[in-house]
Structures are given as structure tokens and as C-alpha cells.
Amino acid sequence: MSKVSRRAVIGGAAGVGAAAVGFGGGYALARDADVERSHVVPFRGPHQAGIVTEAQDRLHFAAFDVITDKREDVVDMLQKWTAAAERLTHGHEVTPDGAVGLGDYVPPSDTGEALGLSAAHLTLTIGFGPGLFGPSAAYPDRPDRFGLAARKPAGLTDLPAFAAEKIEPQRSYGDICVQACADDPQVAVHAIRNLARIGVGVVSVRWSQLGFGRTASTTRAQDTPRNLFGFKDGTANIRADETDDLNKWVWVDEADNPPAAQWMTGGTYLVARRIRMDIEPWDRANLLEQELIVGRTKGPGAPLGQVGEFDEPDFQVTSGRAPVIPRNSHVAVTNPKNRGGVRILRRGYNFTDGSDGFGHLDAGLFFIAFNRDSHSQFIPMQHDMSRKDAMTEYLIPNGSAHFAVPAGLKPGEYWGQHLFS
Ligand SMILES: C=CC1=C(C)c2cc3[nH]c(cc4nc(cc5[nH]c(cc1n2)c(C)c5CCC(=O)O)C(CCC(=O)O)=C4C)c(C)c3C=C
Ligand SMILES: [Fe+2]
């Protein structure tokens, strides 16, 4: 891999000029290199990056349909994707000098819009959908095109239908997903765009979603952000240092699958839900009503009846004879104390996709969760939300997808290697 990054190419050119006028240029280059290094999230490791990685500020999430029946073409693309993804996460071009250095008469191998930008903590996380293994919600009559049916983990089904959702197939499902997260939207978009370009003829983008303003924290160093209802979101999320809970609730264990699906060990399941939020009616609800729906205060984000954001919710406290945290509040429905201890790792983003033509914002939360077994974690939680949660009145889920996210890569491995070999 080239050691020259997009940023260093530009910085290097500037440095030559600076060196000519004094030693300040050298200092600037060294400092640039430090900044550069700190903007890179390691691509390889026991688990894929982009799951417990400190949540970045921007998202470009893409779901792809595989449009070929040739297994070798899919493997070839995954190998090319891996090489490109590793370079992109290091702040490099897709191939060395790929944007402008390949000559006048070939299409550049890198689209170029990230030239001069740092790696911006880019992470690229891949997942495989049910449709890669045979029939699925998107294509019920599809055969097992790649001979993978026996390797499908039992946990990887299409998500069921939930009450009060309006799922649009053109915003749902997918054979492969790539979650690109970065602190610069242009870096995330550039990554997805270049992977889509590399995959031409093998995959086509089925749907994609941009997100801004993370709605979760995955480390204690991060402040809790706010969602578009104006509430702190992510307070009670699983954090990167909660190793026991991650092992229990996020990472797939060897014991979870038979030998044919061991490729999922160390992986996790990704749930994606595009949840439109009825912003205008919400804005007409009074503050107390909003807080009773969430189960927390809007200012500090404390559980009702408590003072601080990180105080434990107490569902036994009553006022008169009614619980202070209503039983149908979002926190009461989703808190582990009321769900036999079950937790999920949330990593969603706000979105605004303009207006809907009727004067309403098409805005909401692109919910992303990682869990070890969606059937015993996310799915029952979502069923309860749909049936009991007062917040549901203001939510219209219209996109839905489920992916198996394999473990991280060792040196030399490519995305999907343990599934396809
Ligand atoms: C099925 C899982 C969940 C969906 C879907 C979901 C959507 C959703 N949530 C908010 C806003 C908040 N959620 C909060 C907490 C919270 N949410 C879930 C699960 C789902 N949310 C869990 C497991 C939790 C943690 C509960 C707990 O342990 O107390 C909060 C409170 C702050 C926090 O802990 O994060 C808010 C606010 C919206 C707006 C939304 C869909 C658009
Ligand atoms: Fe929530």
C-alpha cells in the first residue's frame, strides 16, 4: 500500500515551498502527519470497525443488490472492495495516484472529490443480507445463486412485519450493505461512490441513506447527542469498554452456530430502519407530554423522577398511584430492567431528505443497531415498541433491512473470505 495519503500529497507540495523559505515547512509537515495519523481508524482487527468505534458524525449507508449469478465475480469484487476500503480508511486514493495520475485516456480509478481531505475517521463496515443465500423478501423466487444456502446462519432472516410501519421495498432489504461513517460527509460519500463504481456489473445500489448528527455515543468520552425530537439519544447505550456486555449482547459466539456458519463467529447482526418522525405534530405537543412519552427530561436527559442524565431509571417510583415513568414511555418499553436484561448497541443518525410536498419535513432517525441475535433482542423490542410505546404515534418506519456482519479481518484477508471459501 502506498504510504502517501491524499492529504500528504497536497501537504507535500506545500511543504516544498515552505522549506524553500525556512524550517517552518518541516514543522508543518510533521504536525500534519500527526493530525493525519489521529484521523485513521484501523481497518483490520478482531471485529469490524464502525461498530464500537467512537461514533463519527456522518453516515452514508448503502444496500446493494447482487446482479450477477457468477460466484467468482462476487469474490473478485469483494477482493477489490477490500483493497479499496483499506486504502480509503487510511485517507488514500482507491489506487495510488488514481484520481489524476493514470493518464489522459483512461477513466480515473478514484473519483477525486476526497483529494486533500483527511481520512476523517472513516470506517467501512460490510454486511451480508438474506438474499445472498437464496430467496428473500426482496426476491422470493430467487435460487441459491452462489451455493451459500447451507452457510446461512439461522439468525439471518428478513425482519418480520411490525405493527404501525409502512415499509417501502425500494428503501428496504439488500444482498450486501456497506456502512460508511466519517467525520466529513464528503469522505463517507466518496467511499460509497467508489465502491459502487468498482462493483459495476456485479452489484447495483438498491437504496442508500445519508445521515448527519449521530444519535448514539459508543464511548464515555463522547457527549450524548440529540435526535430531531430534541432529546438526548444514546445515554444508556452499550459502550466500547463494556466488554462483558459486548460479548453477551453484540458479538456472535462460536456456540451460536453450527460449523457451516462459523464464519459469523466474532461478527454481529445489523438492523437498519429508516424511521420517519412526525416532526410537526411533535412540535405541537407540550413539553410535559414529550417528556412523558420519552420517559426522560428534555434538558439534562435524566430519567423522570431523577436528576442526572446517567441516574438509573426507577420504574417503581409513583406519584399518586401512577408510575413517574409511564409504562408506555419509550424508556420503560426498551430499558433492560423491563426486558430481562436484554440490551442492543445503537448507532443511528438523524436524517432530513427535504420535504414531502405537503409542507412536512421528510426527516427522522436512521436507526442502526448491532446485536448478537436479532430474534431474541431487536425483534421482540420492536414488537413491544410498535404495540405499547407512546412514541410510536409519532414514528413511521418506512425502510427495513437485516444483515449479517462478519468478524474483522486478519492481515491479507478479504471481506467475506470465510463465507466464500
Ligand atoms: C427497537 C429498538 C429501538 C428503536 C426502533 C428506537 C427508536 C427511537 N428511539 C428514539 C429516542 C430515544 N431512545 C432512547 C433510548 C432507547 N431506545 C432503545 C431502542 C430503540 N429505539 C433503547 C434500547 C434505549 C435505551 C433504553 C434504556 O436503557 O433506558 C432514548 C433515551 C436516551 C437513551 O438512553 O438513549 C431516546 C430519546 C427515537 C426518536 C426513535 C425513533 C425515531
Ligand atoms: Fe430509542
From TrEMBL:
Organism expressing this protein natively: Gordonia alkaliphila
Looking up SUPFAM superfamilies in the UniProt record yields:
Dimeric alpha+beta barrel (SSF54909)
Q: What is its main location?
A: other
Report the family membership.
Belongs to the DyP-type peroxidase family.
Query: How many and how are cofactors bound here?
Result: Binds 1 heme b (iron(II)-protoporphyrin IX) group non-covalently per subunit.
NCBIfam families of this UniProt entry?
A: Dyp_perox_fam, tat_substr_1
Q: Which residues form a coiled coil?
A: none
Record keywords, A-Z: Heme, Iron, Lyase, Metal-binding, Oxidoreductase, Peroxidase, Signal
Under the heading InterPro entries, the entry gives: Dimeric_a/b-barrel, Dyp_perox_C, Dyp_perox_N, Dyp_peroxidase, EfeB/EfeN, TAT_signal
Which reaction(s) does its UniProt entry say it catalyses? heme b + 2 H(+) = protoporphyrin IX + Fe(2+)
Q: Which Pfam families match?
A: Dyp_perox_C, Dyp_perox_N
Q: Where is each Dyp-type peroxidase N-terminal domain found? A: 48-212
| Protein name, entry field | Deferrochelatase
Whichever gene encodes this chain, its name is: efeB
- Cofactor(s) for this protein? heme b
- Cellular compartments annotated: Cell envelope
Which principal EC class is assigned to this enzyme? Answer: oxidoreductase
**Domain Dyp-type peroxidase C-terminal, residue spans:** 224-408
Q: Superkingdom, according to UniProt?
A: Bacteria
